[in-house]
From TrEMBL:
Described purpose of this protein according to its UniProt entry: Catalyzes the adenylation of molybdopterin as part of the biosynthesis of the molybdenum-cofactor.
UniProt cross-references to NCBIfam families, sorted A to Z: molyb_syn, PRK09417.1
A UniProt-annotated Pfam family: MoCF_biosynth
PROSITE patterns (alphabetical): MOCF_BIOSYNTHESIS_1
Protein name: Molybdopterin adenylyltransferase
CDD domains: MogA_MoaB
GO MF term set: molybdopterin adenylyltransferase activity
InterPro entries associated with the record: MoaB/Mog-like_dom_sf, MoaB/Mog_dom, MoCF_biosynth_CS, MPT_Adenylyltrnsfr/MoaC-Rel
Keyword Cytoplasm listed: no
Keyword set, alphabetical order: Molybdenum cofactor biosynthesis, Nucleotidyltransferase, Transferase
Catalytic activity: molybdopterin + ATP + H(+) = adenylyl-molybdopterin + diphosphate
């Protein structure tokens, strides 16, 4: 049987990483994929501070050493001096995928006018898709609902494992295939 797809979940927060508040972002992402995915998968989680080099190093470790096909970060996408997640992501990706950030900001704007403050982006490193989400835990489902339909096909294209979804939760779109459900 194929080994489970590895998904990296990275909380980037000075306070959550210091234990000043409990991390709600990582568990929200875990919960999202637990509901959305029907194919075998395994989470690899990290909680780290807003430090550019440390974020880049974590992304490289999850992509290259752990072999995560998908890495989702939460936090550090805004304009504050310590918000450096997009810079750290750009440091390690080979290809920028601008549509992800554009779509997530567009759907988020319908919820909150400050969505324009998020510089969240996505990109490809080798066989990993890296997607930034804002830090507010409620932003996680808002953003993932928008981009998740395209993620399994994106991972097919970068020669990763086939992610299957529960169509009652999210319908994965693969061109040339009839949507399941
Ligand atoms: N992992 C998390 N768990 C719970 N709440 C969070 C988390 N990350 C962020 N938040 C909430 O969302 C807000 C905005 O997130 P942002 O990433 O800008 O954090 P911040 O204000 O820079 O502080 P920090 O890095 O210490 O979380 C935070 O002020 C906090 O209320
Ligand atoms: N969907 C969604 N997007 C959102 C938000 C939100 O609540 N929901 N918060 C915004 C706010 S207030 C900020 S400051 C930016 C950056 O957040 P971050 O620094 O926590 O990543 O994300 C924005 N995007």
């Amino acid at each position: 049987m194929a080994s489970p797809a590895k998904i990296g979940i990275v909380t980037i927060s000075d306070r959550a990483s210091a234990g000043i508040y409990a991390d709600e972002g990582g568990p929200a992402i875990l919960d999202y994929f637990s509901q959305a995915l029907t194919s075998p998968w395994q989470a690899i989680t990290r909680i780290i501070p807003d430090e550019r080099a440390g974020i880049a190093q974590t992304l490289v470790e999850l992509a290259d050493k752990e072999g995560c096909c998908l890495i989702v970060t939460t936090g550090g996408t805004g304009p504050a001096p310590r918000d450096v997640t997009p810079e750290a992501t750009e440091d390690v990706i080979d290809k920028l995928m601008p549509g992800f950030g554009e779509l997530m900001r567009q759907v988020s704007l319908a919820k909150v006018p400050t969505a324009i403050l998020s510089r969240q982006l996505a990109g490809i490193r080798g066989k990993s898709l890296i997607v930034n989400l804002p830090g507010r835990p409620r932003a996680i489902a808002e953003c993932l609902d928008a981009v998740m339909p395209a993620i399994p096909y994106c991972i097919d294209l970068i020669e990763g494992p086939s992610l299957e979804t529960d169509p009652a939760v999210i319908v994965a779109f693969r061109p040339g295939q009839k949507p399941k459900g």
